Here is the input.
Amino acid sequence: MRIFKGIAASGGLAKGKALVHVRSSLVAEKQHIMAGDVATELEKFHKAIELARKNLEEHQLPEISAEPAEILETHLMMLSDPDYLLQIEQYITTNLVCAQWAVEYVTNHMIELLEKSLDEVLRDRAVDFKDVSLHLLNALSGKGARRLDSLTEDVILVSDSLMPSELFAMDKTHIKGIALDGGGRASHVAILVRAFNIPSVLALGTASQKVHDGDEIIVDGNYGEVFIRPDLVVSQNLDERFARWQQHEHELHQMADLPTEMTDGHVVLLKSNIQTGSEVESAKSIGASGIGLFRSEFLFMDAHGGSSEEQQFQAYKHVVEAMSPLPVTIRTIDVGGDKVVSGMGIDEKNPILGWRAVRFCLSRKDIFTIQLRALLRASVYGKLQIMFPMISGVEELSAVLHLFDHVKEECKIEHIPFDPDIKVGTMIEVPSAALCADILAKKVDFFSIGTNDLIQYTIAVDRGNEKIAYLYQPLHPGVLRSIKMIVEKAHKGGIPVSLCGEMASDPLYSVLLAGMGLDELSMGFQSLLQVRKILRDVSFKDAKQLADNVMEMDSYLTITTYIREWMHDRFDHFTTI
Ligand code: PEP
Ligand code: MG
Here is the structure.
C-alpha cells in the first residue's frame, strides 16, 4: 500500500480501479527529422490515422445517444478529410518535422481560419478539429486512444494535470474520484470537481507515476489522502471515518430552510456559485439566497452545448426562472488564463496576465455583444444581475458599460423586452481595481470580490501551481487589508459587496469575513450549510471584534493560529481545521 497526501479539493470517499491519464504525453514537441526519414514519418502518420479511426469506431456502441453518435460520425469524417490529411503530410515533407508537430501546427492553423468565419457552423467545427487532432496525437504517442468522454465502467481518474475544458468534456457519470499530481485549492479544476461533486485530491506530487491502470485505489476528498492498493484494515477504517462525515452532512441539511442570521440579528446572505444550469437544483435544495456567481464561460467549454445567442439565452433563462424571485448574478465570459476554450484563438505566453475576461471581450465585441443580448433577453424571466470579471480600472469598466448601453439601445429598437432596472456589478479581483474601489463604486450597483484572483495577483502567486501553494495565503495581511478597503469603499459609495472566491467557502474564514462587513458570501454548494451553521452561532459584535483584532496582526501565521484557536474554542464540531 502507498499513501499520498495532497489538497482536499472535493469532499467524499471514492473507491475503485485506477484509470491513469498522463496528459503530458499528449503535448506535441517540435522535432526535426532527416530528409531520408520522411517516408518513415509518413508511414507512422498513416498508421496513426488508422489507429485513431479504429479507436473511434470502437466507441460507436449501440447505447450511445444520438448526439455523441453524430459527433463521432463527424470526427470519423474529419479523419478522412483529404485536405486536412494532405496539409499535414505536406508539412512533414516540406518542413522536415515529426508527425506530432505537423498535426499540432496544421490543426491550430485550421482552427484559426475557422474561428474567423462568419458562419457559426464552421466556427463550431474548430472544436471538432481540436478533438480529432487529440485522437491523432494519442495514436502517434503509441498509447492508443484514451477516451474519457465515453467510459464504460466506473473508475478513479489519476492524472498529472487536467485542464478545466478536459474535465468538462469527460464522462463524469463513470468518474467516481479524481487524484491529480498538480493543482491548487482555488484552481478552476478544483472548483469544477466540487461543482460536479466528485471526491478529489490535488497536488499529490508524483502519484500518477506510481499507479497503474486497474490498481485498487481510494480517494478521501475530506482529508486529502489517496491510498494506492490499500489493505483491508485501512479500507475499513476509512469507511468508518466516511460514515461519521456523512452523518455530519446529514445533520447540516436541517439548516437548509433557515436564514443566515447571527445571534444579534445581523444577516449575511449566503449564495451559490454555479458553473452549469444543472447545479441550480443543488443551490435550491440547500436554501441558497440566490446565485452569486454563474461562471458563464463554462457554457462555451461545453463544446457541443453551444454558445449561439439562442443557446445562451435558453441557458440563462433556465437558471433565472428556476431561482426566481431570488437574484442570479451571471458573470460575463471569463475565458483565458487556465480556461482556454478551443476555437477562440487564445494562445498566450503569459495567460494569467494576458488576454482574458473583459480584455478578451472588448476585443471580440462580436462574441461579447451576443452574450449581452442573450443576458438582456433572459432578464425578464426573474431577477438577473450582470457582473464583469477582471476589471482593472475605470477606462475598462466605462468601455464595458458603454457597450452594454449600446446593446440595450439595439434591443429597444428591435422591440426585445428586457428588465430596464437590471443591476450591473463588477468583480474586484485585480489589485488596481481594489485600490480604485471608490472610483469604480460610482459606476456600478454592486461589487463582488474574487479572492481567487485577488490573492493570486496581490501576492504574485499562481493559484494553480502546487509548488508554490504554501504562498497562496488568504489570511495574508496584504489580502485582508485589500478586502477591508474594498468593503469600506463600497459601503461609502452606497453599494453592497459580496465575496465569491473560494475563501467564502472555507468555514475557517466565515466569522472573519462576516466581521469585516461583507454583505454576501457566495460559494460552492458543498460548504454553504457548514458556513450557515457557524454564522448562526456567533454575534456580529464578536465577529467584528475578531476582525478588528486580526487587522492589528502582522503575519498570516499569527492570524491563522489566532483564528484557528478562536474557532476551536467556540465550535466543538469544527472538524475542518
Ligand atoms: C475569483 O477570482 O475569485 C473568482 C470568483 O473568479 P474565478 O475563480 O472564476 O477566476
Ligand atoms: Mg477570477
Q: What stands out?
A: Residues 38-58 form the longest helix (21 residues).
